[in-house]
Amino acid sequence: MAKANKHGLPADRWDAVVIATHWLVAGGFVCNRLLNEAGGVWHERIGLTVAGLVLLRLLWGLTLARGPARLSQFLPSWTRVRHHVAQIRSGELSNQLEHNPLGALAIWLFWLGLLAVAATGWGQDQSWGDAWPLADIHAWLVDGLTVLVVVHVLAVILMSHRMGQNLLRRMLPLP
């Protein structure tokens, strides 16, 4: 078993709620992006489930989460982002479980983007939905999130290599 950190969590792993919501949201996004017919019943159900999971993660991060999973622990700022970019350039990377500032910024973009995707998807079914270009906005948001997913995966691979450790393992649901 991994050594515990100061919050009583395994020092090299995220907690179960963070891991579960991460993979369920990722799976739901991929299903709706690649496998489901847009506007179909399953597309809508999965989209609303993803939104619910994001809200659950936010609620968890505000209330019961400990350590680096608390939302207050990874509020991005431009100062922290600039400092982190300088660390990347110099090769002085810290080995911590917390999200680095660029990762924190990406996480917030994911959460806000996923909630906006759900809202624009839901809005298309409402009587006022035709008055707004919600279908276009929905598609643009999904495309933007898809690019962010690719950047996220590449960043995990690159940072794992640069830091000499397997960052993916921290988010795997297996021991």
Rounded to an integer in angstroms, the radius of gyration calculated over CA atoms is 18 Å
Low-pLDDT runs: none
Q: How many DSSP helices?
A: 5
Please count the beta strands (DSSP E, at least 2 residues each). 0
Q: Quote the distance from N terminus to C terminus.
A: 8 Å
Classification by helices and strands: mainly alpha
Helix content: 55-70%
Quote the beta fraction.
under 5%
> How many domains comprise the coordinates?
1
Mean pLDDT: 87
Order of helices and strands: HHHHH
Largest sheet: none
Identify the overall geometry: globular
SSE layout:
Blueprint: H1 16-35, H2 41-62, H3 78-90, H4 101-123, H5 134-163
Task: Provide an overview of this structure.
With 175 residues, the protein is mainly alpha-helical. It has one domain (16-167). It is built from 5 helices and no strands. The protein has helices at residues 16-35, 41-62, 78-90, 101-123, 134-163. The mean pLDDT is 87.
